[in-house]
Amino acid sequence: MRKLDYDQIISEIQEWIKNYCKSFNVDGIVVGISGGIDSAVTSTLCVNAIGKDFVIGLGLPCLSNPKDLSDAKLLGTQLGIEFIVFDLSSVYEEFIKITTNVIESNNLAAANLKARLRMVAWYFAAQSKGNYLIGGTGNRTELAIGYFTKYGDGGVDIEPLGGLYKCEVREIARRLKVPENIIKKPPSAGLWEGQTDEGEIGIKYDDIDEILYRIDYNLDLSDLNKSEVQKVKKMMSLSQHKLKMPPTYEIYKN
Question: Of the four listed, 36, 102, 165, 192, which is most buried by Cβ atoms within 10 Å?
Answer without folding.
Answer: 165
